[in-house]
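Minutes, project huddle
Topic: does the predicted pose make sense with adenosine-5'-diphosphate bound?
PN asked that the exact inputs be recorded in the minutes so nobody has to dig through chat later. Recorded below.
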Amino acid sequence: MSFKSDIEIAQETTPLKITEVAKNCGVDEKYIEQYGNYKAKIDYRMLKDLKDQPDGKLILVTAITPTPAGEGKTTTSVGLADGLRKIGKKAVVALREPSLGPVFGVKGGAAGGGYAQVVPMEDINLHFTGDFHAIGAANNLMAAMLDNHIQQGNALGIDVKQITWKRAVDMNDRQLRHIVDGLGGKAQGVPREDGFEITVASEIMAVLCLASDINDLKARLARMIVAYTYDGKPVTAHDLKAEGAMAALLKDALKPNLVQTLEHTPAFIHGGPFANIAHGCNSVTATRMALKMGDYAVTEAGFAADLGAEKFIDIKCRMAGLHPSAVVIVATVRALKYHGGVAKADLNNENLEALEKGLPNLLQHVDNVKNVYGLPCVVAINAFPTDTKAELDLVEKKCNELGVNVALSEVWAKGGEGGKALAEEVVRLCEQPNNFQFVYDADASIEQKLDTIVKKVYHGDGVVLTANAKKQAQQLTDLGFGNLPICMAKTQYSFSDDAALLGAPKGFTVTVRNLKVSAGAGFIVALTGDIMTMPGLPKVPSAEKIDVDENGKISGLF
Ligand SMILES: Nc1ncnc2c1ncn2[C@@H]1O[C@H](COP(=O)(O)OP(=O)(O)O)[C@@H](O)[C@H]1O
Ligand SMILES: O=COP(=O)(O)O
Ligand SMILES: [Mg+2]
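Predicted holo structure (tokens), as shared on screen:
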């Protein structure tokens, strides 16, 4: 069976003018800054003016532990919002902006798929409104000012071996992970080991996602710790007088972007941290706008419920005072078979036995959402064209037998029409009482918080800190950062820190090898296993299939 590609579906649709989309969801035109006919930035001052307007219900879309292709959170978020509108509800979706890393790498774009997409998908997946370029420029201005300070005499006494700030580029480029720069002699800089991280892992991305306005942004940027002195004192962006210029670069990037789904549902897209190496959620301002403009605000958190959902709750909701009403856990036949031991190449072949063997991964995520996060949830079986009826029926049957709330989602194939059953169930769940809770108390020690996450969310035996991480934990506590929430940087392919441990592994510990404070964002990043903040391209990058014709029409993006 052949299907139209995502980009073919997107390009055959006629979107509404963005001013009409804005008007339809109640955004006053005085807040709209158009970027062409189909994109706009919305001034966050609208939130101050609407502060007395009641919020809608917040729905989080998460997933089971994914295959490298992803299981359809973004697709389901879009299709659910469309489905809610199909049943007469005022729904808005809030998503992250795609990074060029995956776009040209393995996963491809992040604008949904099939008949559940946001448009214009080419823009959204490529330059969009320039926010990521602005973040990269601000990040690298910081790096240039830091190295220039050292070159100009190093009055602050920065220890070049204790520089924590990396350069950034929005690309999967392993060649830049570990570099030596400042070569060429006295006038060319100070030689040192350096490195790049992907822009979505930059602390500035997290700051942009958590800041409420330009003053808050500037204050956060100023607090960012970029290095330590020879006597171990932190050096901040403010010490280097960098926050003003960085904020100037980010003035427009701070405003959320408004686009639409294929069915003209309003979609706020803003910020794009990955959930394995960063906190994995779109901006608070975009989420708040969705809550003001919709009776139901659907948002997503990256990768599975042990990563994006945990950080959505313990970082984003904790900092912004958000309280989700319901959670959708996306599951797919292919991912369940993957957890049941089927090789990636064979995932399109029916295999009921492997499917059943993979269920423990789903059940453990359901258990976490219900009993650790305390939220009502529904499993959305995201139907792929390669799924057989027997497989889809088995997942639904097993979930029902185990008392797991489940709904079939056909949004990829049918758009909002395929999301009506899921929408009805989500509306019901939003009216249920919920015992929303954070996983840990922020005032616990850094090690206790790490241990709690490993035990309660990953179902491991506990955390192990390397000697280096232990020293850093003590240093950060002594500097007064011990009460910050934790941003776990861990593989997305396993509950554990070992990507090979699929399903619902037991009897493992998670090793934290490095702790770094993101003092501007307000959390501590814990690097586990061999996770890296600069991914690499695969053997056959998706970029090889992307092209543009003489009329500027792009092909090959998905
Ligand atoms: N039901 C489906 N059938 C076919 N392809 C799908 C389906 N759902 C998602 N996809 C595709 O799978 C990939 C991952 O979907 P996405 O929504 O980005 O997942 P996530 O946000 O969880 O990473 C995308 O290329 C998307 O087009
Ligand atoms: O950070 C990861 O996001 P996805 O799970 O949407 O790829
Ligand atoms: Mg996604």
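Observations noted during the meeting:
- The longest strand covers residues 509-518.
- The chain has three domains: 6-128+253-431, 131-241, 447-527.
No decisions taken; revisit at the next huddle.
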